[in-house]
Design brief:
Length: 421
């Protein structure tokens, strides 16, 4: 695949320009990337590779920043290394930001093609964006009426929004305070202003149609999956690799259901197989945190593990354990399957859609079934190794996700007002 600095002609659309909102990517400076961040970064890299005029937009504490292609390319490089340099004086005045995010916002200003106060976003976009520009919101940051109205000041502007899942509305009990209301508002904005919505699965598409009384066209485009290259040298110290072990991935939050695995390991005795938990501590999970702090034989907890280390751990494991109660796409099981690693997960519709009959499906209500399966896999003479799958690619995703641009070109059927720049 060409690098970000190599431009190739696009065959998926003929938009006069694209602008990608990278506010979420900037907000994650110094904090490690999530699945949503990886998708936003994949869009950034893809748009940099072809000849369509491209810009990046971000909201900072001091207003909005617009980057041209050169600035966006530099942003991609810096975000991949997570080396943002040092905060400047203006950034240090934003005391609610930690030093990494202060430095990220200082870097944005240095790279800026244009800057605007919050009330001047529309004028800035209308001055720099050609008619028919397509605005992409991938990370849900800036998904507000104010920003959408500002985008519409560009003549015949179009808006595409990627909705990763509707879990906050489907499972409100798993959310942090205020999250449900915030997500509901963002989804309503997408429903009102988007020319089309992108989802990664039919499962999410069906949920969107349930939650939005008036839904714009929905394009289902499975996310590209690029399994990281295993790097055994990056495995954190303290993990015993000389005995059978399992891996579980993801933020330690109620939805990921780590409690079930801890129940199992507390019954496995004094010499159990290992359970390597890779993920930062999240929210509303104090009981699980307390159990981890007390210690359970065989269980180790690791935050900030690199992608290469996770891939190496998975390859040496007896399997990925993923008892999550709800997922929008579920990248870890797909990545594990692409590495030829056994996947043991809850019987969710999204896994049936993405992985078919490949995983071992277990009821998340039956911890004894999980215990028996884990015992069997841990004591088998050799790890069970399914054949690696070929996961979806990013080019196929973009071919689908961008296809409405050509269909909308030359029409006046835009959602919301459209003004002269």
């Amino acid at each position: 695949m060409p690098g970000a600095g190599t431009r190739v002609a696009t065959t998926t659309d003929s938009a006069p320009a694209r602008v990608l909102d990278v506010t979420r990517l900037i907000s994650r400076a110094g904090r490690g990337v999530t699945g949503v961040d990886r998708v936003e970064r994949a869009y950034l890299a893809h748009f940099l590779r072809d000849e369509t005029p491209f810009f990046a937009l971000a909201r900072t504490a001091l207003g909005f920043v617009l980057l041209d292609r050169t600035g966006a390319g530099r942003l991609l490089t810096v975000s991949e290394s997570d080396d943002w340099g040092r905060p400047d004086l203006l950034s240090r005045l934003s005391r609610r930001l930690d030093p990494a995010r202060q430095a990220a916002q200082a870097t944005l200003r240095r790279l800026a093609l244009a800057r605007a106060p919050r009330g001047g976003l529309g004028r800035m976009l209308a001055r720099h964006m050609p008619a028919g520009t397509v605005y992409f919101n991938i990370g849900h940051s800036n998904l507000s009426t104010r920003v959408m109205e500002a985008v519409r000041t560009v003549r015949n502007a179009r808006i595409a929004v990627l909705i990763h899942d509707t879990i906050p509305l489907d499972f409100p009990d798993y959310q942090r305070p205020g999250t449900v209301e915030t997500f509901r508002g963002r989804l309503a904005v997408a429903g009102q202003y988007a020319d089309w919505i992108i989802t990664a699965s039919e499962v999410v598409r069906a949920s969107l149609l349930h939650h939005l009384s008036a839904c714009p066209p929905v394009v289902v485009a499975p996310l590209g999956v690029t399994p990281p290259r295993p790097d055994p040298t990056a495995i954190p110290p303290g993990i015993r690799l000389d005995r059978p072990y399992f891996v579980t991935l993801g933020t330690i939050e109620p939805r990921k259901n780590h409690a079930l695995l801890l129940d199992v390991w507390e019954r496995l005795g004094d010499d159990p197989p290992g359970l390597v938990i890779c993920g930062a501590r999240g929210w509303q999970n104090e009981a699980v945190f307390a159990r981890l702090d007390r210690g359970i034989p065989g269980v180790t907890e690791h935050s900030g593990v690199s992608d290469g280390a996770v891939a190496a751990l998975l390859q040496g494991s007896r399997g990925l354990l993923f008892p999550s109660l709800a997922e929008g796409y579920g990248l870890p099981p797909i990545e594990a399957a692409a590495l030829g690693v056994s996947v043991i997960c809850g019987d969710l519709a999204i896994y049936r859609e993405t992985l078919g009959d490949l995983p071992v499906y277990l009821s998340v209500r039956d911890s004894y079934l999980w215990e028996n399966t884990i015992r069997r896999m841990a004591t088998a003479p050799a790890p069970e190794r399914p054949r690696p799958i070929s996961p979806p690619g990013w080019q196929a995703h973009f071919n689908r996700a961008l296809s409405p641009i050509g269909q909308l070109r030359g029409t006046a059927q835009m959602r919301g007002p459209s003004h002269e720049g």
